[in-house]
Specification:
Layout: H1 6-18, E1 21-30, E2 37-45, H2 54-75, H3 94-99, E3 101-104, E4 107-115, E5 118-126, E6 131-137, H4 142-150
Antiparallel strand pairs: 1-2, 2-6, 3-4, 4-5, 5-6
Length: 159
Amino acid sequence: MTASDRPAAYKLVENGTLVAFDVTKTDVQASVDGEEAFVRIDLQLGEVEDDDRSQDQEWGAFGFIFVLACMSFHDARPRGVSGAYFEDKDELTVADFFECLRYERGELRFSADYIRGRCLKTDVTVKPDGAVVLETRCRGESATRWLDRLNGKKHLTLA
């Protein structure tokens, strides 16, 4: 990431980690080969007590998507021939993020397949009412761990 990208990235991460969210439904389905999984997680942005959750969505949606995209990028590994483009010490840039972002039929959508050799296979959709759909393909259940980390939960790791 270039020095000029950093302030924008830091602001997106700040907003993305501050916005409150609730997981409303998680669906994990094994793929045909049984080795991979397809995950769909429905979320709602905003505080539960807040009558108008849309205020949190207005200032937090871009950052929330960016944080999920960064987590997906960080955890992503190469598949097949994409290993030739994989760099272990790489970061998702703001330019990468906006290249995968679009506004479509009233919804903000991030969709990433491969970025510089990393198999992201991640889609995030934020709807006008603050409902969010996070979907991953062939990534195991990593999306559930991203949300746990955003909520402050720690996972055991081998030292």
